[in-house]
């Protein structure tokens, strides 16, 4: 990873370089360098007509995706796998890899049975679902909320510690590796009043009423958050989660069914370079178009996925020949619960363990479910058709 172009940042029209100094314990040496402090976000943005056209297209696709999700008997069911898809991709962007099926399975395993990577991805699921609930209850996005979510993200990981759940109090460097400070790809603001003031102004900006279209606000505020880099770890995952929370808070999405991270993962280099380029040039058009492309592409994926899941649901109903009872209810909910145990099914549908177990046996006999695990009392069953529709 290349070191930052200091001269390009020195000429930035939307931020400034400030001197920093400190001690690098890794190399046992003092350093003197510069960090980048972004200016407060503007109340108005002048963008090209082509940029607004990209935003309008993305907003239209997102509205169609939101409408498509409402075609499901229980739209909230789609949010469950969507959150896990997002967890897999947003974590992969930070170098933590897990299979979607393993993340679904984690719901039924003890902590000691999880690998480190699956446990970390699972932390994101927990944090995201909590965040969605808070926004649905009308809570505004806040730094305090993000501190709580960051603590959940780091729980039990190598990055967990006394600093978890708090805005950083020391200088950090992005893309440093084992090199000297001067080799960092980017150096965020010092951990002093400039970081705290920047965060306060960022929070105010995303909360205040504005005529700026939501997708533009999402793109711009994501840049600002990542540039401030307020935490020691988890900034990327939290920043991408905030994007979804903004769309929900603005009423653009009724349910968190749109995943932005899978597209960003496919365009990782352009994503990382785009953030830096905004700092260097102050130009918002390319960045807003990039985020609009991500939302547009993933919105179309949602529409396609809903079609596939509805087709699967109809297929299951045909296989069960209009049967009523627990087996049909479990089959109907497989689009949200493609992995299930008898205990979980009993709790979800308010029936006895025996009734749930009998229903699952019927679904296995019909080829809708298959057993995933053996040698444990509460066996895990999975629906390959739904998992395939979610994983593509």
UniProtKB/TrEMBL annotation:
One of its GO terms (molecular function) is ATP binding. Pfam families: Fic, Fic_N. Residues 141-293 form the Fido domain. Keywords: ATP-binding, Nucleotide-binding. The active site is at 229. ATP binds at residues 94, 229, 233-240, 271. This is Cell filamentation protein Fic. It comes from Mycolicibacterium sediminis.
């Amino acid at each position: 990873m290349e070191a930052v172009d200091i001269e390009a940042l020195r000429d930035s029209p939307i931020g400034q370089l400030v001197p920093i100094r400190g001690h690098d314990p890794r190399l046992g040496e003092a350093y003197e360098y510069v960090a980048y402090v972004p200016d407060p976000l503007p109340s108005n943005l002048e963008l090209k007509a082509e940029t607004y056209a990209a935003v309008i297209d993305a907003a239209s696709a997102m509205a169609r995706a939101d409408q498509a999700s409402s075609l499901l008997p229980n739209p909230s069911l789609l949010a469950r796998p969507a959150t896990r898809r997002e967890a897999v991709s947003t974590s992969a962007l930070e170098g933590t890899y897990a299979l979607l099926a393993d993340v679904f399975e984690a719901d039924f395993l003890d902590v000691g049975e999880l690998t480190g990577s699956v446990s970390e991805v699972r932390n994101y699921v927990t944090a995201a679902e909590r965040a969605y609930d808070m926004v649905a209850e009308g809570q505004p996005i806040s730094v305090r909320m993000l501190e709580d979510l960051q603590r959940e993200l780091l729980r039990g990981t190598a990055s967990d510690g006394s600093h978890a759940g708090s805005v950083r109090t020391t200088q950090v460097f992005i893309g440093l590796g084992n090199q000297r400070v001067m080799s960092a790809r980017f150096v965020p603001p010092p951990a002093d009043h400039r970081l705290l003031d920047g965060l306060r102004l960022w929070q105010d900006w995303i909360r205040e009423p504005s005529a700026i279209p939501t997708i533009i606000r999402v793109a711009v505020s994501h840049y600002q958050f990542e540039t401030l880099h307020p935490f020691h770890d988890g900034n990327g995952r939290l920043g991408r989660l905030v994007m979804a929370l903004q769309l929900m808070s603005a009423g653009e999405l009724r349910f968190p069914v749109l995943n932005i991270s899978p597209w960003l993962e496919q365009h990782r280099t352009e994503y990382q370079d785009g953030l830096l380029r905004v700092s260097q040039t102050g130009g918002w058009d390319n960045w807003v178009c990039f985020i609009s492309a991500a939302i547009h592409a993933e919105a179309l994926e949602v529409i396609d996925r809903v079609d596939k899941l509805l087709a699967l649901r109809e297929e299951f109903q045909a296989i069960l020949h209009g049967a009523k009872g627990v087996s049909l209810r479990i089959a109907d909910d497989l689009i949200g619960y493609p992995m299930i145990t008898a205990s979980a099914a009993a709790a979800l549908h308010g029936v006895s363990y025996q009734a749930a177990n009998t229903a699952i046996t019927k679904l296995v006999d019909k080829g809708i479910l298959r057993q995933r695990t053996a040698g444990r009392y509460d066996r895990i069953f999975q629906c390959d058709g739904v998992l395939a529709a979610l994983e593509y």
